[in-house]
Structure formats: structure tokens, C-alpha cells
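Suppose you are handed a protein chain with no further information: no name, no annotation, nothing but its sequence. What can you learn? This example shows the usual starting point.
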Amino acid sequence: MQIPRYQNTYRLTSFNPFDVEAVDKMVMETMVSELSPVTSYHPNHMAKLCLKIGSDLQNALCKKDYDRYKLVVQVTIVQRFDQSVHGAFQCLWDVERDNYSYYVFENNHIHAWCCVFGLYYD
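A reasonable first move is to predict its three-dimensional structure. Written in C-alpha cells, the prediction is:
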């Protein structure tokens, strides 16, 4: 079985570009629905919850069929101890085509954040 080889299209735009507003809404709804019932922090349960949220978002984003975009979902949940949390992301960025969505969820027990990157590739 031969793998087909395609020539480069040299197309610099996507037919279906990364829509930040739609992804923001999707991330917020997923985080609120999954994390609202949480009443205490358990490390093993939070690790499974991070995986579930990430895979749910990944599946929903794949259904959106963002053309020529790599989608990266990062979910972090930490216990809330009245301390500050600082997070930073660093990467090479194309300001015209790449974008991201970010949401923070807090309650009395946890501090959770989710970042979805839409990175354009040729």
C-alpha cells in the first residue's frame, strides 16, 4: 500500500480559521460543567479530571474541523491554599494566524485553568 504524496499548496490562509469566540464559549462550558460539582481536592481524581476535560475539548475541537491548524489543549488543576499561582507560556508565534483561548475556574477548593492553542501550519 502506497502512501499518496501531495504537492504543497502554498496557501497562507485557512478555509476555516480558528474562531476564538467559539472556542472560548466551548472551554468555559466544559470547565464549568465538569468542575462545578467538585467539593474537595483529591490528586488522583483531579488528574483524571484533567485528562477528561482535555480529551472532551480535543474531540469537540476536532468536530469543528479547523483547516490547517494544530490544536493543543492544556488543563491544570491545583489545590487552593490562599497562595498565588503564576503560569507562563512561551513559543514562536505568528500573530496573523495563531491564536489561543484561555479560561480560569475557581471555587473554594480548586484553582483550574485551561488553555487551547490554535497553531497554523502550512
